[in-house]
Amino acid sequence: YTLPTPGLSDFPIPFSFGGLADVTFVAGETEPHGVYGCGARTVDVLGSVGLSFVVGRASEGGSCLWATDRDITTVSGESVEVDWSKVSTSTLVSVGGPGVNMVTLYYNGTCPFVWRYEPGVKSCIYSSLTDTEYGCVWAQQDHAIIQILYDEESGKHVLIVWGLSGYGSQAACY
């Protein structure tokens, strides 16, 4: 039986359902890697800890696993593939932006808010709903995406949480 994709107001369902957690948390590797050669920030991991606390509080048992994006993805040029055989849980939470977390990059473009990046020029979230680009002023202003979806290929519910900077990702996790 596959649950319908819940809304964010239903969180922590489906990551914890019927008292059982069944989730893998994925944070970007801190070493430079991936399509853009960037490393993730520690605040992404801290945000994951907060989310896992919420899932754990709603659970009496089950599985709560973790991995870095490098553990479960392969990058070839600008193409990212997720090796779903390395994710044994029925749900996945990806924390950190598409520049530093290749799982998040894999899902870039699956909602009306897309990360646009031109090295040395811009890193922004583009909204196809408003035809507007939203940027970041370091440590002063940020924008973030919180997206929940059902991935048909993997058969998993996925929560993607990220900001334009580590501060944005951490705020989205709150």
What is the mean predicted local confidence, pLDDT?
93
Low-confidence residue ranges: none
Binned, the helix content reads 10-25%
Strand segment tally: 11
Q: Helical region count?
A: 4
Main sheet characteristics: 6 strands, mixed
Cα-to-Cα separation, first versus last residue = 31 Å
Q: Write the element-wise H/E pattern from the N-terminal end onward.
A: EEHEHEEEHEEEEEH
Task: Give a quick summary of the entry.
With 174 residues, the chain is of the alpha/beta class.
Describe the structure.
The chain is an alpha/beta fold. The protein has helices at 42-57, 69-72, 102-106, 166-173; strands at residues 16-17, 20-27, 61-68, 73-76, 79-82, 91-95, 113-118, 122-127, 132-134, 144-151, 156-163. The chain is built from four helices and eleven strands. Strands 1, 2, 3, 6, 10 and 11 form a six-stranded mixed sheet that branches.
Q: What brief labels describe this structure?
A:
single chain, 174 residues, 6-stranded mixed β-sheet, 3-stranded antiparallel β-sheet, 19% helix, globular
